[in-house]
C-alpha cells in the first residue's frame, strides 16, 4: 500500500528562513474528527513564536504550523453526526496543522463558510475572530468604552467590528496613521499612535477623564503603565498576548483603589468542549452578519503556501493591516 503524502510547512527553530515545505503523511481523521482538503490557511503571531522554538503546540497536536484553515471536508471519521458530510465548505479553528494541503480536526471546531465568502476570506476568520469574540463575550460589552491595542492586527480589526455591532465604543492604538484611519473607517471612534508618546493622556481626554471600561491587551509589558492610567474604576483588562514581553515592575497600589479586574485569556490550549461551544455560539451570532457584509475579514496580503518564508517575514515587520493569508491550492478559491 502506498501511503498518501501531502505538502506541509515544517521548520527548524529559528528565523523565517528556517521554514520549508516537506512531504508528510496524509492525516487520517480519528473518532469525531473530519479531514479538510485545505484551500487557504493563514498565519498568526503564535506561528512566528512557535517557529522560534518558544511556543510548543498542545500535547498530541501536530507540529505543522497553522491555527486556522478553510476548505472542503473530504473525509469524515467515525462518531461524527449525520449532518457532517464530505463536500461541505468549512473553515476551522485548529490547535495546529493548518499550513498544509490537508488537516484533521474535531468536527465541532468547523463552521460552514458564510455565503458569498471565498476560501481566502474564510481562512482569515477562525483564529482572530473567535479570539476577539471570546474576549468580548466573556466580559459583556454593552454600553462600554473599549480600548483595543494593535487595532490594525487580525484580532484588532475583528474586535473593532464586534464592538461597533454590540453598540459599544472602540478606541484603538496602532503604530501608523494608515492603521488608525482604517480602524476609524471600520467603526472606531478614535485612534492613537502609540509611537507618539503616552496614549493614556489621550484616552483620558476621550473619556472625559474617566478612562475605559475594558482593555484588550496583546502587548503586555511596554503598555502596562499607560493601561493602568487609562482604565476606569471597576474596569476590566483582558490580557491575551505579550508582544512586548511579560516582565513588569508594577505598583499594585495603583490597581487596588480602581478595583481593576485583570483577566488572562488564551484560545489554543482550551478544551475541545470550550472550543465547540465557542464555535457554535460564534457561528450562530455572526454568520448572517458575514453573509450580508456587516462583518468582513480584513486581508492584507495573500501568499502561496510555498512563499511561507516571505509571509513570516512580513508579519515580523508589523506592517500588516489585517490578515496574512496563505493560498494552498488553485481551484475554487
Question: Could you explain the architecture of this structure?
Answer:
This protein has two domains: 5-125 and 268-327, Medium-chain alcohol dehydrogenases, catalytic domain (Quinone Oxidoreductase, Chain A, domain 1); 128-264, 3-Layer(aba) Sandwich (Rossmann fold), CATH 3.40.50. Helix content is 27%, strand content 27%. It contains nine helices and 15 strands. The chain has helices at residues 45-51, 119-123, 126-139, 154-165, 177-185, 200-206, 224-230, 272-291, 308-317, and strands at 5-11, 19-25, 33-43, 68-76, 89-93, 102-106, 110-112, 145-148, 169-174, 190-193, 212-217, 231-239, 261-264, 299-304, 323-327. Strand 11, helix 7 and strand 12 (231-239) form a beta-alpha-beta unit. It starts with a strand and ends in a 6-residue tail after the last strand. Keywords: NADP, Oxidoreductase. Residues 14-326 form the Enoyl reductase (ER) domain. It comes from Candidula unifasciata. Pfam families: ADH_N, ADH_zinc_N.
